[in-house]
Amino acid sequence: MKSIKQLAAAVLLSSSLGAGVLADWPQWRGPDRTDISKETGLLKQWPAGGPKLDWIYKDGGLGYAGFAVVGETLYTMGARGDTEMLIALNVKDGSQKWAVPIGALLTNGWGDGPRGTPTVDGEHIYTLSGQGNLICAKASDGTTVWKASMRDLGGKTPGWGYTESPLVDGDKVVCTPGGAKGAVAAFDKKTGKVLWQSADFTEGAQYSSIIAVDHDGKRQFIQRTMAKVVGLDPSSGAVLWVTDFPGKTAVIPTPIYHSGNVYVAAGYGVGCKMVNIGSGNKVTEVYQNDVIINHHGGVVLVGEHLYGYSDKAGWVCQDFKSGKQVWAEKKALGKGAITFADGKLYLLGESDGQVVIIDASPEGWKEHGRFTLTPQTKNRNPKGKVWTHPVIANGKMYLRDQELIFSFDVKGK
User: May I ask which residue range the UniProt record assigns to the signal sequence (predicted)?
Assistant: First the structure.
């Protein structure tokens, strides 16, 4: 069985023979959960009105679930009626390949339905419903292989539902039920057997997704909760290190690891923090400030600079090593989500659906095109916004507004 990284490498190798490199996007924030696409040969400047629209799928269901794209299939989730569904679409024309139920509808004042992103690993796909049903299914037709409930592991559904995207690493599937039995749990990815729960780390689940990193020659899982950021031993769930980072209301953005440093950000006025994991997993704070106060639109690290929306200053470039602000732009685009591909940042405004492409550069905001997502849903909860993150995969840009799923051609000519 090929791993996520092996599959991505194979696609890169086979696709690099032409003009540019195309790449799959098999899980939340891409193959290594950094939101950095390996694609090249994409449009450097958009035409007036934006890139060419390939298709719109209009039955994606309610929710904010993201996209996994592997080969000719896009995977996502959505709620139809009182049921949440795992859905597979043909990327060529947007037609549905299959859709299967994964659990009862999560209801919420900011919008019903699932929030996470499926993870594709070889012949199987793993996903977590809004109410905490972990599903392993066949990627070919959606047939359930096994399932588990976060509730059975002592978990309690967070206020906005389970939003985590399951991590597949080696022979394990890892996610965060939260609770006194252990905040993080690992399953055998083939059978669904519980391998361990983190007995020494027992906080409630929040909304972030786990990353797997190689640090100092050893693998570890990094996750965060309302008050802590933690590194766990993949073989046992034992705590390797922990640092305080108290959040407020909700903790959402995925951690970033680079060169022995772990960076986290949070909204609701909290800000950001970076720690260094030294020898023996000794934790040292590098900085903590409010340069990036990121709610849930995400932060990306490109080179030695971080980019993302800050509730304080707007779109921000932050120096990774020092934590200092390099530039900020508040007027050009409102709050939203971000991803990176081929030297550019793709930005999606959550309030109006504006989509903007700019240089990923510490030199400042340099725009290369924009358009407004059209049409937009009439089914969004009044408190909800365009919250699904953009994805770049195999020369396409995928966007979503509830039941409406869009594919745009962003490959250079």
Answer: 1-23
DSSP 266-292: ETTTTEEEEEEE-GGG-EEEEEEESS-
Question: How far apart are the C-alpha atoms of 218 and 236, rounded to whole Å?
Answer: 14
pLDDT band at 3 (very low <50, low <70, confident <90, very high): low
Measured distance CA(350)–CA(164) in Å, rounded: 20
Q: What is the pLDDT of residue 4?
A: 58
The range of the structural domain enclosing residue 289 comes to 4-409
Q: CA-to-CA distance for 93 and 198, rounded, in angstroms? A: 44
Give the CATH number for residue 70: 2.130.10.10
The number of beta carbons lying within 10 Å of the beta carbon of residue 277 is 22
Buried-exposed string 25-36: b where 16+ CB fall within 10 A, e elsewhere = bbbbbbbbbbbb
Q: Which of 146, 133, 147, 239 is nearest to 196 (CA)?
A: 239
Residue given tokens 């696609």 in the structure block: 11
Q: What letter does residue 297 receive in the DSSP assignment?
A: S
How far is residue 225's CA from residue 228's CA, in Å, rounded to a whole number? 5
pTM of this prediction exceeds 0.85: yes
Span 261-277, pLDDT tens digits: 999 999 999 999 999 99
Confidence of residue 413 (pLDDT cuts 50, 70, 90): confident
3-state SS, one letter per residue, for 160-207? CCCCCCCEEECCEEEECCCCCCCCCEEEECCCCCEEEECCCCCCCCCC
Other Cβ atoms within 10 Å of 58 Cβ, number: 11
Residue 385's pLDDT band, with cuts at 50, 70 and 90, is: very high
Strands 283-289 vs 68-70: parallel, antiparallel or unpaired: unpaired
Q: Using one digit for the tens of pLDDT, what is the confidence trace for 280-324?
A: 999 999 999 999 999 999 999 999 999 999 999 999 999 999 999
For the chain, what is the domain count?
1
